[in-house]
Amino acid sequence: MQPQSAPPHRPRAATDGPAPSDRSTWRRDLAASFVIFLIAVPLSLGIALATGAPLQAGLVAAAVGGIVAGLLGGAPFQVSGAATGLVVVTAELVQQYGWRATCAITALAGLTQLALGTARVARGALAVSPAIVHGVLAGIGVTIALGQLHVVLGDTPNSSALENLAALPSELSHPHPSALLVGAVTAAVLVGWPRLPGRAGRWLRTVPAPLAAVALATGVSTGMTVPRVSLPQWQLQALPDLPDGPVLGVFAAVLTVTLVASMESLLSAVAVDRLRAEHAGPQHEPAGLDRELAGQGAANVVSGLLGGLPVAGGAIRGSANVAAGAASRKSTVLHGLWVLLCAGLLTTVLELIPLAALAALVMVVGVKMVSFAHIKHVQRHREFPMYASTLGAVVLFGVLQGVVVGIVVTAFLSLRRLAHTRITVDEEDGSHLVRVSGQLTFLAVPKLSRALAQVPPEAPAVVELGGSFMDHTAYDTLQSWTNAHRARGGWVTLRGRGGRPIAEPASTHACRPWTPWRNHHCTRPAAPTDTLAPQGGQQLLGGVSAFQRNTAPLVRAELARLAREGQCPTQLFLTCADSRLVTSMITSSGPGDLFTVRNVGNLIPPPATDGSCDSVGAAVEYAVEVLKVGSITVCGHSGCGAMQALLDSEGGEPGSPQTTLTRWLRHGRPSLARMQRIGRLGRGEVAVADRPVADALERLALVNVMQQLDHLMAHACVARRVAEGSLQLHGMYFHVGEAQAYVLDPPSRTFTAVRPEVLDAV
């Protein structure tokens, strides 16, 4: 139930973060800046090593990316620095043109990004197929990993991935033991650090994995003779020099740096923005991608002029920034200042780091760029050929060539899918089924006409369209045949994939079955002739009418089966009567799936209470003994009016009048007493993973779920089935404002958020 006395909620305006005068904001940003600084320093040095640029260039890129892109960019929580995706490109530029010319190309690419950001084309850049983008990143990752593996083995990388691959067997047979040990320690720590168990592991994981890996590898290398970081004295680099080579080649280099840096930054900005939205809630302001592109351009101009690597936003650093609790863009800017101070004051410490540790760090980053989650995603969308061809072309020929190959393969497959249409005609029980698989264009009209001609006159026919597109020529052919067949006495039904009806009237709209009445246009009643007619009843009748029109045809067959066979639900779902809890929507269930019991406060009175409470007990007994359900879930929710009433009753006068509602709420007093015993801070009795419990109302709702599970066990039929192992009890909490479900882990008494990638049912 919704509390009646709750004050209206007035959302704050969305900004980059709280006001600068807020001390807690400064504390959060300061703490987050140190975390990303500790990640950025070893990563920047490793990227500079992998490109063959001066190691100082990586620190310049990190400082400029933090300060310039942090101040000017449109994604406040993105952290920019030396671009991981440009390692291969930058290495080729350094070999071909030299370092000073590479800096000039970086500055020119930054000017191009500034122009693109001003032209507001950032959203257009995201139109490139994700299969191509992920293929480019994976190809770059493979190339990086192959090159840096040679450094870990104590040698130097070759100029191409194929040469690195060909030389690998001889390097593996004669490795440098000290460098290999340092690299192995670094890689092992990077992989194992996030998985450290226990309380000590949770404490150690507060140290960023890259910092821990490099620090431990440096300690292991003490006394060994291995190449180490060598930083020149901090000074302003010589001005960039224009590349000496064909204009077309220089133009291609600038275009490649612009394309890869922009795509990496924009994709990272979207990912970090999505992650930030999960923390900030619905009032979060989305990132400004055009401003972000211009900010990245400004950072690349400054980095190129100061002798730094190309700059791009990084999802690794950005996600660490959000996870560390950053409140505004100040954390990004401060991290750039710390990098600047480190480069000037901690040169001696940095020069203790072995190069094999940095190479192993970048090698692991390269391996992670080949994401199996991305491979599954593109495979599910039938885009793996684009992904594989792009990846292979990047490894064999280069980044720009890989993008071109990916675009060509995408265009070819799109045209093939558009032109490849399969049409079959089958006879089933006197009815002819014409099944169309693929898109219906003018190229498929001859095949469609031949298939339709196989349907005898006056025969019933079903035309099932499995594609998502039909051009005017195909539509006209199908419509003409349909009209002619019906004129000859035939019967024709058009349907989509899976039997869904198509060709709905133009007046149809996109209301969903769960759309609230205030937005559900198809349930809105016409103006009543009688001004005294109750609007609520008309709205309800309108909703029933919409069900009969839109939903009943889809569920009639399933309901007919249930009517014949009877109900056989597998779950008993006990929840509150609050109108905001739509159980079928939360659980994605349909008719016959849930046996649902709802009451004020999702209360389950224990047995042997007075007879007025037998309704809930009878439902529990019927579900357990007759329906033989396999699980029972008790679901509480945020903003529960029953819990608020229990909190308000603390310290009330004992002689206050008793009503039906207050008599019912006495079954929630054990929950209130339980919370009073543990205190309003919880003392380990109840918690929510990844965030603190919001307030006393939420804490009581969580405690109430646990208490009602105890009440369930007091029912003999439940206790017996649980002891047999044939019945499971679950606790759930639904946060209405966040549309987020949490499930209870009984041993830890912690409610954990259910994420979209989790497929197992409660």
From TrEMBL:
- Where does the SLC26A/SulP transporter domain start and stop, copy by copy? 28-383
Would the keyword Protein biosynthesis be found if you checked this record's keyword annotation?
no
Protein name from the UniProt record: Transporter
Organism source for this protein?
A: Streptosporangium nondiastaticum
Which residues constitute the signal peptide according to the record?
A: none
Q: Which residues bind Zn(2+)?
A: C576, D578, H637, C640
Where does the chain cross the membrane? 30-50, 57-77, 97-119, 131-153, 178-196, 208-227, 247-267, 337-367, 387-413
Instruction: Please report a single Pfam family linked to this protein.
Output: Pro_CA
> What is this protein's function?
Catalyzes the reversible hydration of carbon dioxide to form bicarbonate.
Mind telling me which InterPro entries this protein's record contains?
A: Carbonic_anhydrase, Carbonic_anhydrase_sf, SLC26A/SulP_dom, SLC26A/SulP_fam, STAS_dom_sf
A GO BP entry is:
transmembrane transport
Keywords of this entry: Membrane, Metal-binding, Transmembrane, Transmembrane helix, Zinc
Gene Ontology molecular function: carbonate dehydratase activity; zinc ion binding
Q: Where is this region: Disordered?
A: 1-24
Predominant localisation class: membrane
Q: Which family does it belong to?
A: Belongs to the beta-class carbonic anhydrase family.
Q: Which Gene3D superfamilies does UniProt cross-reference here?
A: Carbonic anhydrase (3.40.1050.10), STAS domain (3.30.750.24)
Task: State where the protein is found.
Answer: Membrane
The superkingdom of the source organism is Bacteria
